[in-house]
Design goal:
With 149 residues, the chain is of the alpha+beta class. It is built from 2 helices and 4 strands, in the order E-H-E-E-E-H. A two-stranded antiparallel sheet has the order 1-4. The protein has a two-stranded antiparallel ribbon with strand order 2-3. Helix content is 13%, strand content 15%.
């Protein structure tokens, strides 16, 4: 079947991985430091990966490719979740899911207010998605000076 699908220029790819993170279907993976389209039937052709590529290595092409298979994508996602182990209490301390509680401290001066940010700064990519504080959480990520309702 001839359809629109992405193509990755290996010469332009700098290996940043932004496209693999943006691909919700899991069609793109990092192989030997470069992005690669793993399976044609995982690519839905919508191009969520295109705007994330800083080097312009990803383009659309019309070519013979297997039809998008949503069932295969869902099965692949489920298989990846099965392989994800619950966070253990050992290993790298930075990869453990922890809840940081503010320590009791002396009252702040009148002009100063103590911070109420208990988990700041957080690097979202480094926090494990299996962490208990993400379970059932509704998360809004906003940058400085942005509006939201």
């Amino acid at each position: 079947m001839k359809r629109r699908i992405i193509e990755i220029d290996q010469e332009k790819c700098n290996g940043c991985g932004a496209c693999a993170d943006a691909c919700h279907e899991g069609a793109i993976a990092m192989v030997n430091g470069k992005a690669r389209l793993m399976r044609d039937d995982y690519c839905d052709g919508l191009g969520d990966c295109l705007p994330t590529c800083p080097t312009g290595a990803i383009t659309f092409v019309e070519r013979e490719a297997a039809a998008y298979d949503e069932a295969a994508v869902l099965a692949n996602k489920a298989q990846k979740l099965i392989g994800t182990a619950a966070p253990s209490g050992s290993g790298c301390p930075g990869s453990r899911a922890m809840h940081i509680r503010p320590a009791d401290s002396a009252p702040a001066a009148a002009a100063e207010q103590p911070s109420r940010l208990s988990q700041w700064p957080v690097q979202i990519r480094l926090a494990p998605v299996t962490a208990p504080y993400f379970s059932g959480a509704k998360l809004l990520i906003a940058a400085d000076c942005t509006a939201y309702a």
